[in-house]
Design brief:
By secondary structure, the chain is α+β, with helices and mostly antiparallel strands. It is built from nine helices and 24 strands. The chain has helices spanning about 30-35, 35-45, 75-85, 110-130, 265-270, 280-290, 305-315, 340-350, 355-365, and strands spanning about 50, 55-60, 65-70, 90-95, 95-100, 140-145, 150-155, 165-170, 185-190, 195-200, 210-215, 220, 230-240, 295, 320-325, 330-335, 380-390, 395, 410-415, 430-435, 440-445, 450-455, 460-465, 485-490. Strands 1, 2, 3, 4, 5, 6, 7, 8, 9, 10, 11, 12 and 13 form a 13-stranded antiparallel sheet that branches. Strands 14, 15, 16, 17, 18, 19, 22 and 24 form an eight-stranded antiparallel sheet that branches. Helix 2 crosses helix 4.
């Protein structure tokens, strides 16, 4: 993870009502601590084999992990649940996640919480060292997390500082796969250290303890909670030890930039709302843009043209490809060699000389400059673009190695089929200053609106995860819950 997601080390003391201050003495479940069971699990871990019984399931793929059923006595778990309910939870919200979490529980004044932490630091840590061979130290970080409907934690690998084994204890009500909130494990591509697909989903069953080895390929996520009447409560954290050397990351592939396509002046005039050719309107828009570095141009296309392009994007034979990897993004991109001719022309219009000229007049940026007595310098400004489809479970994440974030850039986002879109659905674009948490700007999709945002290399952007509420958006017979985006980036 990047530094922006690193937790604040300054923690306040978590205080609970003092009723019974006697700390219970906990033992590990018999299913894992007798000599024969420990020996089998140790051998399976060392040889990357599977060892599965009715109580314990240790498996090697997609990375080494173990699920232990009935980890604590039920009466103690109920007490633990009651004490956790008295601890303050803080909202955690950024590009990667949305849920509530306590501060580190190591200072909690609760016998049950203290007893559980003691079990982890002493008996469980000793057992883990014996089974895994990892030389864990006595540092154990532990918090409690609560996920309500639409909350999620997207794909990541957990690598940070000296984390060596991650663990989770589920304290949930009766739970089914339809409730969401599964712990999803990803397979990863060899050599590139990128997640490929979810190959295992672990149900957050009450009193189940899960742990896994933290490596550069331990990609996992907490799937969105879909249940409206349940909360996914857990306690989790990391055992620490000597850090592993992290392999070099694969560089992000670049999209080639290209100069504008000649012409398209007639098409731009035929398609774009004539309001945006009015000299007074252009002057006001340019003034506003120069002050704010962003603007939203509503009703950008003529109504008949809007219907034409929206219909063309909804044809069934248009092929869409999911783009990744999941630790950076998930959305659909139209395959350029399978798009209808009208869509192709529309895309080319946005990358044409005529559009460069219009954008230059709208923004004041040097995207088109023709000197009367000199040769046309039209090769200097460049662009790249995509036709995107956004729907439930789609998102992008901030990542510092983004190759498209290396210079000043004009983001152009035209939204289609986005009627009645709400920010509660997600899908909005958030701009953040690098190293900061506060949002600089939020762009919510609006049908037939062109959003223009000028950003520099110190500004990161992400598209917020689209949650299940988006599927409830009112739609007509020729609509679905997805929307389209004609995205282009322009460089002076």
């Amino acid at each position: 993870m990047s530094k922006r997601r690193k937790e604040d080390s300054s923690r306040s003391v978590v205080k609970l009502a003092k009723s019974d201050q006697t700390q219970p003495q906990l033992q590990l479940p018999q299913s894992i601590c007798d000599g024969d069971a420990t020996e089998k699990l140790q051998e399976a871990w060392s040889k990357s084999l599977d060892e599965v019984t009715s109580s314990v399931a240790l498996q090697a793929k997609p990375f080494r992990h173990c699920v232990i059923n009935n980890y604590l006595p039920e009466d103690f778990l109920s007490k633990l649940e009651a004490d956790i309910s008295q601890v303050p939870f803080n909202m955690k919200l950024n590009d990667l996640y949305s849920f509530r979490q306590t501060d580190d529980l190591k200072t909690a004044e609760s016998p049950s919480i203290s007893a559980f932490i003691s079990l982890l630091k002493e008996k469980m840590r000793t057992w883990l060292v014996e089974v895994t061979g990892i030389p864990l130290n006595d540092k154990v970080a532990i918090t409690s997390s609560m996920y309500d409907q639409t909350d999620t934690l997207l794909c990541h690998d957990d690598e940070l500082e000296e984390r060596r084994i991650a663990f989770i204890l589920y304290i949930t009500p009766p739970w089914t796969i339809a409730d969401g909130g599964t712990l999803d494990l990803f397979s990863s591509s060899e050599g590139r250290l990128q997640p490929e697909k979810v190959v295992k989903s672990i149900l957050p069953t009450r009193n189940t303890f899960v742990f896994f080895e933290v490596t550069a390929s331990s990609f996992h996520q907490v799937a969105e909670v879909l249940a409206a009447d349940k909360r996914r409560l857990s306690m989790g954290g990391w055992f620490h030890g000597p850090p592993l050397a992290r392999p070099a990351l694969s560089p992000e592939p670049t999209v080639p930039l290209k100069p504008w396509t000649e012409g398209y002046f007639d098409m731009v005039e035929e398609w774009v709302n004539p309001l945006y050719f009015d000299e007074e309107v252009l002057a006001q828009i340019q003034q506003d843009f120069e002050e704010d570095s962003e603007i939203l141009l509503e009703d950008f296309l003529k109504e008949d043209k809007l219907q034409m392009i929206t219909t063309a994007l909804q044809v069934k034979d248009l092929k869409w490809t999911t783009t990744g990897p999941f630790n950076k993004r998930q959305y659909e991109q139209a395959e350029s060699n399978h798009i209808p001719e009208l869509v192709q022309q529309f895309v080319e219009m946005f990358q044409s000389e005529a559009m460069f000229l219009l954008l230059s007049r709208l923004t004041g940026l040097t995207l088109h400059e023709v000197e009367e007595d000199e040769e046309d310098s039209h090769g200097a400004p460049l662009c790249w673009g995509e036709v995107r489809r956004w729907k439930h479970r789609h998102y992008t994440l901030m990542h510092d190695e983004d190759p498209h974030n290396s210079d000043f850039c004009l983001d152009s986002m035209l939204y289609l089929n986005a009627q009645d879109w709400k920010s509660d659905y997600g899908g909005y674009v958030s701009y953040i200053a690098k190293g900061e948490d506060e949002e600089l700007l939020t762009v919510v999709p609006k049908n037939n609106a062109l959003a223009l945002v000028y950003r520099d290399s110190d500004t990161l952007r992400f598209v917020k995860y689209i949650n299940t509420k988006a599927t409830e958006r009112p739609t007509s017979a020729n609509q679905d819950s997805s929307f389209f985006e004609i995205y282009n980036a322009y460089y002076e």
